[in-house]
Amino acid sequence: xxxxxxAARVACVIGLMGLAVLTGCLGxxxxxxxxxxxxxxxxxxGRGLSESIAISIGPVxxxxxxxxxxxxxxxxxxxxxxxxxxxxxxxLKDDIAAVIAENLxxxxxxxxxxxxxxxxxxxxxxxxxxxxxxxxxxxxxxCVLDATWSLRDLKNKKTIVVRKTVITxxxxxxxxxxxxxxxxxxxAGLSEEMAGEITKMAESVQ
Length: 206
Fold this sequence. Notes:
This protein is about 35% helix and about 30% strand. It has helices spanning about 1-25, 90-105, 175-205; strands spanning about 35, 55-60, 70-75, 80-90, 115, 125-135, 140-155, 160-170.
């Protein structure tokens, strides 16, 4: 009886160890990867923006669908999914504002363009408000940026221009690296449209 009991205990321990190993293998998850958007606009070769003009970018408003750490994907049937293992390193709306500000700073050769923070480093003369309607991707095809934005004269308290911009950028491969690169290029295209309107405004007040 004692030998049988000891053998049973040994078998039980071996069984539990095997179960633990199996559970550990089944529970292994890939590491989470974090991404940030990047400024990709080329520097302007023209003259810089007048120092009398200072521009604050934002606030940037994004829909609840995008206001999350996970990168949002859309398939051909417009089904939405969220990638648990591919996430934004920070807040997406803050990242968008920072990238647009950096793009415009390069395009307009100005150090007086910064993202809105609620406590501006300088007193802005103008503000660009941005409402992102859509900013998602099909991993095997393209990303779509749909934004409505306005350029506002803060001193005279009037809106100079309102635009809706829709940009589609193809993905070079079905990878999240290329997805984020395409999204950064889409923001560069949006920044280029903004730079054009800012240049017109600056020329009109000279």
